[in-house]
Amino acid sequence: MNTTTADAPLLSLLARCDRPGPRYTSYPTAPHFRTDFGLEELKAEIAACTTGASRPLSLYVHVPFCSSPCFYCGCTRIITRDRSRGERYVGQLLSEARMAAALLRRGRPVEQFHIGGGTPNFLGLSSLAHLVQGLGELFEFSATPDRDYSIELDPRALGSPAEAFATELARLGFNRVSIGVQDFDPQVQAAINRVQSEEETLSLVDACRDAGIASVNLDLIYGLPRQSLAGFQHTLRTVISARPDRIAIYGYAHMPALFKAQRQLDATTLPDSRTRLSLLALAIEELESFGYRHIGMDHFALPDDELVRAQENHGLQRNFMGYTTHAGADLLGLGVSAISRIGDSYSQNHRALADWERAVEAGQLPLWRGLRLTRDDRIRAAVIEQLMCHGRIDIRDLESEYAIRFGDYFANSSPALSAYAQEGLLRMGPDSIAVTDAGRLLLRNIAMCFDGYVNEGAGATAPMSRTV
Ligand SMILES: C[S@@+](CC[C@H](N)C(=O)[O-])C[C@H]1O[C@@H](n2cnc3c(N)ncnc32)[C@H](O)[C@@H]1O
Ligand code: SF4
Fold first, then answer.
1. Cβ–Cβ under 8 Å, residues 249 and 222
2. What separation in Å is there between the alpha carbon of 451 and the centre of ligand 2?
3. Is 430 left (phi over 0), alpha (psi -120 to 50) or beta?
4. Which residues does 194 contact at the CB level (< 8 Å), separation at least 6?
5. pTM
6. CA-based Rg of the chain, rounded to a whole angstrom?
């Protein structure tokens, strides 16, 4: 997409479509989970799902601690400088893992393992090693090269030289890292309270490569305060020069009602919808011209990356960790606020650390809420996943898999879809609905046409970020 003034009508259309909406890392989305889904319901789901008894596992561990607050942050995190909290938390995580492992059949291979946060490297090398070794005694960790073992890193908080840190990560079995950058522009960094040099970031990328970690991802955000096209272009070029395998470009989600730190940002310095779109369009242009492929909504990868191959052969999926190739695995989430998807259910841990700790210390799984997907949920989830991963709905596939007549089943979605088609955001045919290049910037809006809950209950009043 070109960002020149020739695109003014398109920018104005996209800006008009800017409204609050879910990000669809799950469907139904988390605000629709219910507290009447508890341990008994989860156990029943595991028991009912006998075909899944030997299905591979995907393990997610949430580490909430960070040593300094980034003002834009929308993650579940706790700011503290007390590093001893990390080791105590690891002990509690292993207690939770022991309880969860006892519910699942032993021997299920862990294909995917991801530690996210907060800042996982807040733990330091010895606590990280304790965590990984402890989990390795409870679950069947893999040593094969096609395993997907990753960790999120904040380069400002390594606590050891980058080389030593990366070498230990590789020794523990990690073959992917995801490094937070956001923007290198000093004005933006000052506004968001995240001062991070290009040098410390790029030397961590080099250290990971030298340690043999096969895949490096860098995270950027567009839509931050004081961002300019010139500054963001410099950031993009610096990031591209390091040739990371993957780059995520997230749209800044501004929800100050939910995330207190965001109230410290000067809202008058936030770019408007048109500038946000120009920043995103610039990122797409730059990355594509340097050989990156656009994956789904907010990810880019080099052509030989497995996400690109998965998108080409329709194996790409989306979950709470982002885009993934591990289609058939059950997802077990450990730690405060973590979400699991086991069989046809979602379940989420307590979001407040004190509640999570209390449950774990009492010998109970720290479940807060969840739900069992209905047949309608599964059909809508499949449509939304096709859109978010492939930008295309295969009508015939869905009709044969779910024994529905697509046009009848989604009759209520039809007026909104036709309106998007008239605006040039979709192409509708008898066998498929395909999102155009312009429509790709509004994937969340298009997915909302298929969301059966969008105006319903708690989910309708939950704060959501803007779609553009
Ligand atoms: C848990 S953080 C990454 C690890 C580490 N804490 C760090 O910041 O370097 C995951 C990513 O979420 C993204 N993120 C956080 N808050 C966001 C927000 N409000 N809107 C959009 N993206 C956000 C950032 O790109 C960040 O790198
Ligand atoms: S962006 Fe990362 S380091 Fe910054 S507060 Fe959020 S989780 Fe912590």
1. yes
2. 30
3. alpha
4. 68, 70, 71, 72, 156, 182
5. 0.94
6. 22
Q: Are 450 and 413 in contact (CB under 8 A)?
A: yes
Residue 254, Cα to own-chain centre: how many angstroms? Answer: 16
Planar angle of CA 280, 284, 285, nearest 5 degrees? 115
Instruction: Show the ligand 1 pocket: residues with CB < 6 angstroms.
Output: 66, 72-75, 116-119, 152, 154, 180, 182, 219, 221, 250, 252-253
Instruction: Name the amino acid, one letter, at 184.
Output: F
Domains present along the chain, CATH in parentheses: 24-334 (3.80.30.20), 374-456 (1.10.10.920)
Mutate to test the pocket of ligand 1, among 178, 250, 255, 262 (most ligand atoms within 8 A of CB): 250
Query: Which pLDDT tens digits describe the chain residue by residue (468 residues)?
Result: 544 444 666 777 777 777 778 888 889 999 999 999 999 998 888 877 666 667 899 999 999 999 999 999 999 999 999 999 999 999 999 999 999 999 998 889 999 999 999 999 999 999 999 999 999 999 999 988 889 999 999 999 998 899 999 999 999 999 999 999 999 999 999 999 999 999 999 999 999 999 999 999 999 999 999 999 999 999 999 999 999 999 999 999 999 999 999 999 999 999 998 899 899 999 999 999 999 999 988 899 999 999 998 888 888 888 888 888 877 789 999 999 999 999 999 999 999 999 999 999 999 999 999 999 999 999 999 999 999 999 999 999 999 999 999 999 999 999 999 999 999 999 999 999 999 988 988 899 999 999 999 766 555 556 667 676
Rounded to whole angstroms, what are the CA distances from 324 to 55, 111, 336?
16, 11, 22
DSSP codes joined into one string, 246-303: EEEEEEP---TTT-GGGGGS-GGGS--HHHHHHHHHHHHHHHHHTTPEEETTTEEE-T
- Alpha-carbon distance of 275 to 355, in angstroms, equals 41
- Please give the distance, rounded to the nearest whole angstrom, from the Cα atom of residue 180 to the centre of ligand 2: 8
